[in-house]
Amino acid sequence: MNQYQEKIKKFSEERNWNQFHNPKDLLLGIVEEVGEFRNIVKWEQDPKVIRKIMLENIEEVKDNIGDIFWFLSLLAGSCGIDIDEAAKEVIGQNEKRFPIEKTKNKHTNTKLGGHDGKY
Amino acid sequence: MNQYQEKIKKFSEERNWNQFHNPKDLLLGIVEEVGEFRNIVKWEQDPKVIRKIMLENIEEVKDNIGDIFWFLSLLAGSCGIDIDEAAKEVIGQNEKRFPIEKTKNKHTNTKLGGHDGKY
Amino acid sequence: MNQYQEKIKKFSEERNWNQFHNPKDLLLGIVEEVGEFRNIVKWEQDPKVIRKIMLENIEEVKDNIGDIFWFLSLLAGSCGIDIDEAAKEVIGQNEKRFPIEKTKNKHTNTKLGGHDGKY
Amino acid sequence: MNQYQEKIKKFSEERNWNQFHNPKDLLLGIVEEVGEFRNIVKWEQDPKVIRKIMLENIEEVKDNIGDIFWFLSLLAGSCGIDIDEAAKEVIGQNEKRFPIEKTKNKHTNTKLGGHDGKY
Question: Which of C31, C39, C111 lies nearest to residue B53, judging by beta carbons?
Fold first, then answer.
């Protein structure tokens, strides 16, 4: 198992917190972190400025990333999924689904002519 | 850098997809995966049944976990954050913040007497 | 147009804030409010206690509801949709889709034998 | 009570669906609709094109708006909140919090010099 997922699992077990970690609560935990992240980038429309604010607030960004990883690890662990395995499988699927020659410079929004909306 | 994050980064670069990977789009990508996950567990109130449905739909669950990890990796990578570093830091912080002896069997919902709502 | 949506539209126009109200930002605004709401109900598993905490924090709940309505109104208004019209249509569709005699006491989680997962 | 909220309440009661409408499930319902909405606007960076796609997919957009309103109505109703009251209060608060002369053309991202991040 991914070594950080393993530590997070242990953290939860030592505190007997699995009783609180209903998948719905964990999903909403991820949602809250996404919502907090929004505060760093909200309303700004220029991608360069968005990038700049993220770099200026890198510690806060890192915290949010870590927190999402945390809840994701617990969610995966709650049904015995190794987060590394899940990542590996999705990478394999996406490499097959989106061959470089067909998808270079093209996005996947089918409303805008993109191919395969599943991304 | 986390080896799967590295591969996902390469995938995006080879297709020149960084132009589409605005942080807001990546955040909304995570939101969509959370929403899809909801379909597996929705409306059921018994935690045991919820666990059972998740195990019965383990491939779909794994896909969702992998997809969230995917968007999270791109988000982290877009400002040079290693997802493993972010995980390590949050684990360190939470271990300090929630000492076992003080938090065992107690959750962090301050509305219900929990200590430290930041979880 | 729904009278509150109308006022929110005017509020945004008077401040010339439509330039910030990209649909992606508005969607993430809703996400943040959902995330804040989570703090009121998180980790608690007993539906009766969840209901009790919501009533004890009714002003905060009302704020969150109002804020979600706010962003939803702006989102609808950005492409000329009247929120009342959208509500009316969905009510009509759901009444057809879920006849009382077929759906009473049955939920719509198809993983658990529910009919029509689109809810 | 808002007339559409009233009808949605009746819909749920007639089917005895309140047993499924745990606030956490309703919040995740909103999340799923936000995620679906994302599919219409994803990856596109030009606000004018985003607006164009929304107009070209207006029925789908209206459906998503209606569905979010639906879940929001049930959530509000579950603790006796009238969605119109909640809207009215937030409008009053925001008018006080953001006087036109001080906020015209200025957004509320405090990371970018905005005043009052609570928006």
Answer: C111
Span D69-114, pLDDT tens digits: 999 999 999 999 999 999 999 999 999 999 999 999 999 999 988 8
| CB < 8 Å to D50, chain C | 22-24
The yes/no answer to whether this complex scores an ipTM above 0.85 is yes
- CA dist A6 to A1, A74, B50, B67, B107, Å? 6, 9, 23, 20, 21
Query: Whole-angstrom Cα distance, residue B113 to residue D56?
Result: 50
> What pLDDT shows up at residue C28?
98
Are B25 and C25 in contact (CB < 8 Å)? no
> Per the CB < 8 Å rule, is B31 touching D35?
yes
What is the Rg, in whole angstroms, of the alpha carbon atoms belonging to chain B? 18
Distances (CA, A) of D15 to A65, C88, C92, C101: 41, 19, 15, 8
| Contact in structure between A111 and D39 (CB atoms under 8 Å) | yes
Rounding to the nearest 10 degrees, give the CA dihedral for residues D76, C20, A118, B45: -20
- CA D86 vs CA B87, C36, C54, D2, D82: distances in Å: 39, 16, 15, 11, 6
For testing contact with chain B, the best of D18, D31, D64, D68 (most B CBs within 10 A): D31
Cα atoms found within 13 Å of the Cα of residue C117, Cβ hemisphere only: 14
Taking residues B22-42, report their average pLDDT: 98
Tell me which residue in D24, D43, D114 faces A108 most closely, judged by beta carbons. D43
In the numeric block, the tokens 């957009």 are attached to D61
Q: How far is CA C1 from CA C74, C85, C100, C114, D92, in A?
A: 12, 8, 31, 36, 19
**Which one, of B23, D42, B75, lies nearest residue A46 by Cα?**
B23
The residue written with tokens 């670069």 in the block is B13
- Residues of chain A contacting residue C33, judged by C-beta atoms under 8 Å apart: 35
Compute the nearest-CA separation of C35 from chain A (Å).
4
What are C86's two structure tokens? 């959208």
